[in-house]
Amino acid sequence: NLESVAATTQLRPERLMRLLRALMELGVVEVDQSGFIATNRGELLCEEHPWTLADAAREYGRELGDLWAKLPQRLRGEDRCPEVFLEVVASPDRCQKHHRMLRSYARHDYFEVPKLLQLDSLEPGNVVLDVGAGTGALGTLILQENPQVKVILLDFPQVLEQVSVVEGLELCPTDLRRDWSQEVPPADIIVMGRILHDFYDDAAVRILKTVHRALKPNGQIVIIEFLLPEGGASGGLCDLHLLAVTGGQERTQKELETLLGEAG
Known about the structure:
- With 264 residues, the chain is of the alpha/beta class.
- Helix content is 46%, strand content 17%.
- The strands form 3 sheets. A 5-stranded parallel sheet has the order 5-4-3-6-7. It has a two-stranded antiparallel sheet with strand order 1-2. The chain has a two-stranded parallel ribbon with strand order 8-9.
- Helix 4 packs across helix 8 (92-109).
- It is globular, with a radius of gyration of 21 Å.
- It starts with a helix and ends with a helix.
């Protein structure tokens, strides 16, 4: 009830009620016969939830939110590579929490992806390379659906330190912005889950060229991205967030096809 929550949080009851009312409007809290409870959305903000997004709430409210103050200069400035990822890996605590956040996003968004990829034609020993893999949420799902293949996760060394390696899973610690094509065996399939949107066009083309060099002849590149509509405003805020935080952008299908053409 209100009084017990106020005592636990050391908040004034009448002001706590104002906070709870706002959280109810956001769909995070609701009221039942026992008092205030978290909704399904609100439970995702709890630390103990297996797919917790508590780290997302903290990071968007702090470090990532602060970067929005630089949006005016981003709108006027030149293209740049994302320094934010170097800042993340420089702090072990932030790196762990940031990638727990990304792992939760991946579990929400990629759960059906391995089935949609239809990788049944892959043979034992075929190589699937997950570029910008984070802690391996997508790569692990692919391996669970296709235990006959070898899945290689490619990301910063500090990120891959968080991965528990299992049979069929290998790690390639590197900076995906450089040419790492000789650091991995030629891949049958290369998966890029929401990687290109973190980079401006020239940087994205360089990454795609490296991906192409790492691919076997007749291999397949799988790109997972949100596509902006050719008209309308859907995705506009996310696109602006990428500009402020990473210097990247969401793209339309035509814009993505142009990138692929430039990369060969």
